Amino acid sequence: MRLKYWRFRVRDALGNFRHLVEMSASNVDGSGLRFEVMPHDVGRCTFQARPDGPRLAWGDVLEIEAAELSTDEYTRLYRGEARTVGLSGSPELVQYELVSLRQRLSETEMPELTLESMDAGAQLRAVLEVMTAGQVWGNAIYYDPQYVPDVGVNAPRLDSTAFQLLAAYLDELAGLVNGSRPDQASVVWGVNVAGYLTWGVSMGATLDVRGRIDVAATEWGAVVCENPCTAVRWFLRPFADLGAVTALSRHPAAATLGRRMVRQSLNVLEVWESVTSLPDPPAGSGYSWGTVSAEDRVRLQRGTAAVPVTFNPATGAREGAFDITPDDPWSYAHFTGIVTPPRAKVQLSIVPYDNGRSINIQVPVSVAGEFDVRIAARTDLSLGGTGVRSNLTFEVPEDVTGLVTCTFKRVGYFAPDQDRLDALASAFYQLPDALVGRVELRSLTWPPPRQVTVVGPGGTAQTAAVTTEYEISAGAYGHTHLKIGSPDPPTQRAMRQLQLLRAQDAAATALTGLVRR
């Protein structure tokens, strides 16, 4: 692409047109413009200019448009939001720095929605359709379903999204998909140069620079990965009165690079899933198990009313049933209910089937007779399947002659949700790049490629992912810098640590905000 000239199109924070600035009136200094573009997103854009040129305020949306020598039609090369507008080293110039509009998504609340489990792309489209109808971003960010395709991986049921940040949800969905199919191209997201929110596999082309006459320079760097991570050891503690439970997530690269561990603590309920399986009630009893909330909590019912388990001290007769078997190994159980009369006690046992060992938990009864207990699994009880069951033993004072009743309001066995943990672990994995380098072209190559094929340091052809940085002078001369890999010299280690912390924050936001079952 040979440029004839370029211009700025300035919009306000909601995307409404403000003014057009031609190249000759931009008053950009001699260092020109530098900006990063990828097929699915844009990066940073920096330049210096006199304040009477761009007339750009903080939060404004800036579009860089360029016309080729052969035509007067403009092509949009960049679209971002002004986040730094301040003095530079010269008192006559203002330093401008723009970032991708994806930053807005980490500042945007989601609407109150409940969605069933479906393809991750379909679930996201349902969310974005509601947000677009509400004009959340005005004309700053657009939505088109073609940029949010199905990906063949289902997202779990989404119970509530009220007041949660969209970026955390996008990160979680991408992590879920990428963790489910590690051998396929990764799902990425952003706001592309056309202003559309994108989520899916990047669809850019591969640029072959072998033999091109416009290659000005090729530089190769050292492959450095100071903080590798191929596995995450999770320490999960759902409640303060229960001990921590551990879980492990592994990247496929652990098979070749070894297990390079980081440790993370999560003290939230959203990484737990119910593994309770309900047996059929006695035939002809009229009893049925019914769900009392969206969290797989259950109770024994006759018709629509909760049916208690009763015990007659005079006859020893028992009515009702309580025999709930978890489907899989579990880490803690949760029981709430009420015992009447309050002077009676119920002993709850978690009984393994294999050898009859049991842990008897005496349920404390308050004046109202209500109880709420959580039981942590012991190692020899994490048997799963038909390995454990729940039993009741009634302890009745001699002067109580009437029926003793125990009504359970909530019953459940819970275990770590490994799929969700594996998805979240993708935010922490750090692997060395196969190739690190930079190729400079004495031309503006458009559109930006997704990856590039080069002759590597060993003299063999290699294809690698690339970030494209464009450099345009004040006189409309364009250069293209193809940045391959993620070099990690000492000057950039602090930035890499900051990026990791941001990824951790996004994962924590997704965990503590989104309520899924």
**For this structure, what is the CATH class of the largest domain?**
Mainly Beta
Helix fraction? 10-25%
Mean pLDDT: 75
DSSP strand tally: 36
Tally the helices: what do you get? Answer: 6
Silhouette: elongated
Q: Within the CATH hierarchy, at the fold level, what is the topology of the largest domain? A: Jelly Rolls
Main sheet summary? 13 strands, mixed
Low-confidence stretches: 277-282, 285-307, 352-368, 379-389, 487-517
Strand content: 35-45%
| N→C terminal distance | 51 Å
Q: CATH architecture of the largest domain, please?
A: Sandwich
Q: Over all CA atoms, what is the radius of gyration? A: 30 Å
What is the number of independent domains?
Answer: 3
In short:
This protein is mainly beta and 517 residues long. It is built from six helices and 36 strands.
Verbal overview:
Helices cover 13% and strands 39% of the residues. The chain has 6 helices and 36 strands. Strands 1, 2, 3, 4, 5, 6, 7, 13, 14, 32, 33, 34 and 35 form a 13-stranded mixed β-sheet that branches. Strand 15 (231-236) and strand 16 (245-250) form a beta hairpin. The radius of gyration is 30 Å and the shape is elongated.
Please render the helix and strand layout as text.
Blueprint lengths: L2 E9 L5 E6 L10 E5 L4 E8 L11 E8 L5 E14 L6 E6 L2 H4 L12 E2 H14 L20 E2 L2 E3 L5 H15 L6 E5 L5 E5 L4 E3 L6 E6 L10 E6 L8 E6 L3 H4 L3 E6 L5 E3 L1 E2 L9 E5 L6 E5 L2 E2 L2 E3 L6 E2 L5 E2 L5 E9 L4 E8 L6 E4 L7 E7 L11 E8 L8 E13 L1 H8 L11 E5 L9 E5 L5 E12 L5 E7 L5 H24 L1 E2 L1
Parallel strand pairs: 13-33, 15-17
Antiparallel strand pairs: 1-2, 1-5, 3-4, 3-34, 4-7, 5-6, 6-7, 8-9, 10-36, 11-12, 14-32, 15-16, 18-31, 19-25, 20-21, 21-22, 23-24, 23-31, 26-29, 26-31, 27-28, 27-30, 32-35, 33-34, 34-35
